[in-house]
Amino acid sequence: MMLADIIFAGRAWWPWAVGLSVVALVAIWWSYRGTLSVSIARWIALALKAAAILALATCLVEPLVTGTRPRPGSNLFLVVADNSRSLQLAGTPGQTRGEQLSAKLKDGQEWSTRLEQDFELRRYTVDSTLHPVSSFKEIPFDGEASAISGSLTALRERFRDLPVAGILLLTDGNATDLESNPLDAKTLPPVYPVMLGSEDELPDVSLTRVQVSQTNFDAAPVTIHAEIEARAVGDRKLLVRVLGEDGKEVERRTVKTEPGKTLAERFLIKPDKVGVVFYTVKVGLEGEEQAGTPDAPQSAEATLANNSRLAMVDRGGGPYRVLYVCGRPNWEFKFLRRSIEDDDEVNLVGLVRIAKKEPKFTFLGRAGERTNPLFRGFGNKGDESLEEYDQPVLMRVTDEQGELTGGFPKSAEELYRYHAVVLDDIESAFFSQDQLSLLQKFVSQRGGGLLMLGGSASFAEGNWQWTTVGEMLPVYLDRGGPAATEDVRLKLTREGWLQPWVRVRSTEPEEETRLAGMPAFKSLNSINSIKPGASVLAQVESVEGHVHPALVVQQFGLGRSAALLVGDLWRWHLKRPEGAVSDLEKSWRQTVRWLVSDVPRSVDVTVRRTATGSAPGIELATKVRDKAFEPQDNATVTATVRTPDGKDVELTTESSGKTAGEYLTTFIPRSAGAYRATVVAKAEDGSEIGRREMGWTVQPETEEFKSLAANKAFLETLATESGGEMVELDRLDRFVSTLPNRKIPVTESWTYPFWHQSGVFTFVMFCLAGEWLLRRWKGLP
């Protein structure tokens, strides 16, 4: 009922009312004074007449009842009903949560009618987005998400300047967008949550999280981490499987459940193709592999919607180009080239010096011969690319015609085509000062990788200590120690054990066995100290116990540099058991992959998950660089998205306006599944700058059914912070009747005279008639 106050309009009549009341009460007392001790009936008669006199005296001062109430139709009240699939779960015995809700939302309900009398009622349903509806006659409960946070935020913005008396939220509280769209409940109108379902756990096995990590570990470059929770399933075993895109099983394992504990499983996988690949991780009760199919028996779980998740693996970005520069033919180049010849993502280009440049002595050549006599007899006398007398003789190992015809690149456009450079046993004098500076910019500005291998012309022995390249190496070249004169053996440091690309075996015991069986090395460029910020990943130790750095790495600008100070790694391959897999080749593949793994490309695409209103979206941010790797603002960037149903959607991009060379476009997924996007960037003249394939997954159901129990804690917090309160579903009528007594934005005052009510007249007549009848009945005077 409404709260009200009583005021007295005829205050001037107070003395008369009091005086007359006193006189009348004294007269009544006087008339009953001799008979009060005789019977209780006389006391009742006295009380009835006195009550009538007091009521009439009160009417003399004109009592008025006044209060406030919501002005009809001036305040908004919002009713929001959850339309997500989680309401198909069991609520009470024999009913789902959705059936409970539908029964309360039928037309003609008393609580709804009362709301419409006092407020302007707005109705909404919420799943992945907010939907206004005219009535709640039919709610399918088929939404794939519960965007409660985004929907409440959208309602706040939509009715920011309008009087909203409150929001009645009917849901199980399992919001799927709290992480992506944090909710500030204190800025909302009062929210009155009605919790559907209970906090009791239902039988369920779910994949709570699937995470993919990629490394340069050759045996298993992709690791899929799966977190599993099992509730109310007893001690039944679980079956975890990984399926490829073709539906074929890649791996399976059986695990035991542990009550109250999250299970973690790790799968090591080597994709059989490059590019974007999707895997499906599935979990379920052992023996229920076919659950969910038409002919399978009913599952013991409450739902199977959270039993699988997609995992996206990106093995694209290539082909990566690696430039190998060597001062003389050696076995390292042979094994390095052999190790990556089957890697579709790495293209090795070699520049090997066959002979150093030598002064021109005319008596050594023939009349009219300009080129080096080493090329005589090959039938290519007129080849302008052949080295002359005073030039080094170079061998080019490449699949592109005309590549490196001028020797080592002399411009940024030539060098920036590569992702990494390997320098092997070659002195600094082979390069010009401009080329040395270009190499430094290649690492620091372009973000490339640089690896220097040990040898007689490497590091300090090659006079690199006073060059720009020496500055970016992770070791001090002017602080070299005595050269190793004895056999040394390789071992990993603590930091090295933590780097998958440094290890060759998948387990620690196997790696220790491998290190113990490695041959001794005889060539080492000795270094005493490393630079700040550098990490020693491997060391060599002599028989006498002397320890020297063997593999040192560091970040330099946008790129990275590494120093491998051992000069005869080829011994590792020669000492392998006959028929065994070459550990050296595997190590080379992983090292090259590490060198190029984070190198920027001419076209780089970042996938960001965003929220457009209450709808989740995907933003593709594309960075475009020209041949000199400067941001390119006049490019044309297009994106083609392949949806789960096989349709292609063409998207146009626009410049971000904030970052040079960055282009943005947004895509709103309409269905769950795996998505692929191919982004193509073209220059102003129409030539293609580059392209990139990306992928992402949309799995709203996995979040919707992440927890099957109602989230009472979230709803209570929402109610408390917004100034509302929790409401029970069965007490909606009572709740609505109390709304006028709460704080309402727009109210009106009401007043009516107490003395002008028929009830007052009836009360006085009842008292006087009752007193008269009682006296007649008892025979009183």
Overview of the structural elements:
α2 (40-60) packs antiparallel against α17. The relative contact order is 0.13. By secondary structure, the protein is an alpha+beta fold. It is built from 17 helices and 34 strands. Strands 19-18-17-20-21-25-24-23-22 form a 9-stranded mixed sheet. The chain has a 5-stranded mixed sheet with strand order 7-6-3-8-9. The chain has 6 domains: 4-70 and 750-778, no CATH class; 76-200 and 709-745, Rossmann fold, CATH 3.40.50.410; 204-315, Hemocyanin, C-terminal domain (Immunoglobulin-like, Sandwich), CATH 2.60.40.1520; 320-356 and 392-596, Class I glutamine amidotransferase (GATase) domain (Rossmann fold, 3-Layer(aba) Sandwich), CATH 3.40.50; 358-391, no CATH class; 603-698, Immunoglobulin-like. β4 (90-92) and β5 (95-96) form a beta hairpin.
Which helices and strands occur, and which strands form pairs?
Elements: E1 4-8, H1 14-32, H2 40-60, E2 63-70, E3 76-82, E4 90-92, E5 95-96, H3 97-104, H4 110-118, E6 120-126, E7 130-133, H5 148-158, E8 164-171, E9 191-195, E10 204-214, E11 222-231, E12 238-243, E13 249-255, E14 263-269, E15 275-285, E16 308-315, E17 320-326, H6 331-340, E18 346-355, E19 393-397, H7 412-415, E20 420-424, H8 433-444, E21 449-453, H9 468-472, E22 488-492, H10 494-497, H11 508-516, E23 535-542, E24 547-556, E25 559-564, H12 570-574, H13 583-596, E26 603-612, E27 615-624, E28 636-642, E29 648-652, E30 654-655, E31 662-667, E32 673-682, E33 688-698, H14 700-704, H15 712-722, H16 732-738, E34 747-753, H17 758-778
Parallel strand pairs: 3-6, 3-8, 8-9, 17-18, 17-20, 20-21, 21-25
Antiparallel strand pairs: 1-2, 2-34, 4-5, 6-7, 10-11, 11-14, 12-13, 12-15, 15-16, 18-19, 22-23, 23-24, 24-25, 26-27, 27-31, 28-29, 28-32, 30-31, 32-33
Helix pairs in contact: 1-2, 2-17, 4-16, 6-13
Organism: Caulifigura coniformis
Domain Putative glutamine amidotransferase: 406-595
Keywords: Membrane, Transmembrane, Transmembrane helix
